[in-house]
Amino acid sequence: MSLIELANISKSYKSGTSKVEALKEVSFTVDRGEMLAIVGPSGSGKTTLVNIIAGFLTPDSGKVYLKDVDISTYSDGQRAKLRSDFWGYIAQDYLLIPSDTAYQNIEIPLQYTDKVKRSDRKKKVYEVAKKLGIEALLYKKISSLSGGEKQRVAIARAIVNDQEVILADEPTGALDIENRDHVVEALRELQSVHDKTVILITHDLEVAYNCDRIIRLHGGYLVEDRVLNSGDKEDDYDLAVAEDAYRDS
Ligand SMILES: Nc1ncnc2c1ncn2[C@@H]1O[C@H](COP(=O)(O)OP(=O)(O)O)[C@@H](O)[C@H]1O
Ligand SMILES: [Mg+2]
Description:
The protein has helices spanning 46-53, 76-85, 102-107, 121-131, 147-159, 177-192, 205-208, 239-248; strands spanning 4-15, 18-30, 35-39, 61-66, 69-70, 87-90, 165-169, 197-201, 213-218, 221-227. By secondary structure, the protein is of the alpha/beta class. Strand 4 (61-66) and strand 5 (69-70) form a beta hairpin. It starts with a strand and ends with a helix. Adenosine-5'-diphosphate is lined by residues 13, 15, 20, 22, 40, 42-48.
């Protein structure tokens, strides 16, 4: 049994009179404990895909299975519950509340779950802050933090409720190399030490090549799905050939 299975997912947007096909019949499975990179140029459908997995969007056709259960027919309420209990979502622009403190932001998923008792919330926030080395920031407002600090707060919020799967949409996009590497290390540690499954969307092939597997989107099509071996580097991968192969198959 796969942890997650996407089966023939298609999604289009209407803008005015035109229609944008953001995802076209995308299928793949994710096993528990994988660290998976989703890459592809801007506009290739990465954010749409992760929003469908997290249940912010419903596909036009196709199914999403979580442990063999079809969650694409879930109600809004059921999907919201999965987001607080199961998916740890790190949005492209963090989606932190700038006028609140780090503590208040990290606590949010705990307010929507019955997994953690109210009296244990503070302990959970402190535990996760310690894990990410941000205890000293807890009572600072988000608006006063640096990019790298905000990022760690966003990661803390994504794991405070012991969510099993971390969905991170370009979490290193706005960071310098040093902070980028810290974030990648933190995500890798979640996978290797804390048994999380990590799905990481990135533009940055150096980040992608630190993962275990790469899925590449292009124009809404899945054009590559490859397990990486240690030492694999960005190679002379021929996008056009791969794309034709997938379209014909
Ligand atoms: N809300 C929306 N309304 C209309 N078009 C959208 C919307 N969101 C995304 N798109 C379009 O769908 C395509 C895929 O977008 P997106 O999933 O954001 O790609 P990526 O994250 O890879 O940049 C793009 O052409 C984008 O312009
Ligand atoms: Mg995006």
